[in-house]
From TrEMBL:
SUPFAM superfamilies: Chorismate lyase-like (SSF64288), Winged helix' DNA-binding domain (SSF46785). Residues 3-71 form the HTH gntR-type domain. It comes from Salmonirosea aquatica. Keywords: DNA-binding, Transcription, Transcription regulation. Gene3D superfamilies: Chorismate lyase-like, Winged helix-like DNA-binding domain superfamily/Winged helix DNA-binding domain. It holds the Pfam family UTRA. GO terms for molecular function: DNA binding; DNA-binding transcription factor activity. GO terms for biological process: negative regulation of DNA-templated transcription. InterPro entries: Bact_HTH_transcr_reg (IPR050679), Chorismate_lyase_/UTRA_dom_sf (IPR028978), Tscrpt_reg_HTH_GntR (IPR000524), UTRA (IPR011663), WH-like_DNA-bd_sf (IPR036388), WH_DNA-bd_sf (IPR036390). It comes from the Bacteria. This is UTRA domain-containing protein.
């Protein structure tokens, strides 16, 4: 129940900030006031405010409270859904292929531990830059075990979607995922793709997707530029 209350308050306050109910520099109601008015625990209120602070919507100022920051648009890039599904409903989402799908051996020191059968078959990999309203926001390296996906390299992606391609052509559906999120500085190559300076802070995400096919998992290494758009678990 706490999770539902926390998400509800988070979404309410975020929407009020986005539509201008609370403007830059405004002070949000105190934790005690929010707790009383929404009839929820103070710790639940604090969790919602922490999420807003992490996404750049507010700043916590000691002795003053939660102050609204200059707002940025938020993208649900940490959610379970694919890029086009999350972004395309509200913004214009486009993709540029940097490396077409090809069958290769797995990279050395791969970011997730692979099973022996995965290592044995090698992988299919490709690289993409994702744009939102012509702004590059995501660089993604995808890796699939090279078994049960005959013709993948030759046929390309259906509507630019990896999830749709796997589901329609190979009956492989994504059912869950796990991810490891870190803050890193852009190296020279990655900085060029985002049109930013080297060492610009980026969000790095290691992601492993679990599918309906036993022992078949899909992997992604993702970099996100949050300079213009924040990322979250919500759309």
């Amino acid at each position: 129940m706490e999770t539902a209350h926390y998400q509800k308050l988070y979404a309410l306050l975020k929407s009020q900030i986005q539509v201008g109910r609370f403007k830059e520099g405004d002070l949000l109601p105190s934790e005690n006031d929010l707790s009383a008015s929404h009839k929820i625990a103070r710790m639940t209120v604090r969790r919602a405010l922490m999420e807003l602070a992490n996404e750049g919507y507010i700043k916590k100022i000691k002795g003053k409270g939660s102050v609204v920051s200059a707002t940025r648009k938020s993208l649900g890039l940490l959610s379970f859904k694919g890029f086009s599904e999350v972004v395309g409903t509200e913004y214009q989402a486009t993709t540029m292929m940097l490396r077409l799908p090809e069958a290769v051996v797995w990279p050395e020191r791969f970011f997730y531990k692979l099973a022996r059968q995965e290592e044995a078959v090698g992988c299919v990999t490709f690289e993409r830059v994702r744009f939102v309203d012509q702004d590059p926001v995501m660089l993604e390296y995808s890796y699939l075990p090279n078994v049960g996906i005959e013709g993948f390299c030759q046929q390309g992606l259906l509507d630019g979607s990896l999830f749709k391609t796997l589901s329609v052509r190979y009956h492989i559906d994504i059912v869950s995922f796990e991810q490891d999120i870190r803050a890193v500085g852009a190296d020279e190559r990655i900085a060029q793709h985002f049109n930013v300076k080297p060492l610009t802070p980026l969000v790095q995400i290691y992601r492993r997707y679990h599918t309906n096919v036993p022992n078949y998992q899909v992997y992604s290494l993702i970099y996100c530029n949050t300079e213009k758009y924040t990322i979250s678990n919500y759309q």
